[in-house]
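G., the chain you wanted modeled:
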Amino acid sequence: MSKVKLQQILTERLGLAHPTFRLEKIGAKLAGSVISETFKGKSERKRLHMLWDALDAELGAGAVQQVGTLLLYTPDEWNVDLPDVQKAKAV
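Predicted structure as tokens:
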């Protein structure tokens, strides 16, 4: 499956509002992150149910063979400022 096809499936089936995709092919599967306001107010569990229900409806049992780990974020979650992490110096 192509990145474009996965983006189309998720955008249409989930009704994603202004989605951003960060996808990459890892072996035979697509994995990455999906960022959309659509996930606001939904628990991680609810988001995952939405995702896999949409993929199962579109791809059937083949969904797990074509799609790997997808992390689902709202734009606010995606843009979190992380504290500076000090890099360890080589000894």
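The chain has one domain: 3-78.

Shout if anything looks off.
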